Fold this protein.
Amino acid sequence: MVLKAEFKTEFSGVGNASGGKVDGVGTINGGLYKDLDINGVCTVEGDLKAESIKINGVCTCNGNVEAERFDCDGVLTVNGNLRAGTADIDGVVTVNGSKIEADRIDCDGLLSVEGEISADVIDADGKLNADEIVGDRIRIKSYWKRGLVALLFTIGEKNSMKFSTIDLIEGTTVELRGVRAKSVNGHDVTIGKNCKIDRVDASGELTIAPSSIVGETVNG
């Protein structure tokens, strides 16, 4: 269902550095890196490409971010779009562009975009906020552990912090828990506990938990 993007890039002899690490507070230029490890507080000016990006600190990128391997245990704000081969998110990622695209997304943290999340496989035990999520296999079981990172992200959100909010979800296999959505479309769809969905359209198997509220269903 989802078009796979090519994230492979030749890095030899091109770009700003073969690798980089930020442990304190600093600003770096965008460009092409091999491996980038951010443990401190960092601002990236311009588009950023790397084979591997790992964020344990706090980072703001004023441009697009692209990586073969993306790992965020800290807090990242992208003032652009995010593309990755694999994305592993245990922290907080906010994308202020229109799209997050990957082959696979694993999210135990918080991922938010005012646009589309697109991946072949989306496996989330955290919280996702987006206008649209498109994938082949989509599993969202909203849960958020308490802590400082959660507090930073959820100030002003009140009780909405425990639900994922998505206007449209489209996938071949869709499994949801703790999700608020306007429309869910798929072949095999499982609506688990504590969901509120306006409309569900499943061409294959459809299961709805008694504790969830679904306005309209189309099955078959």
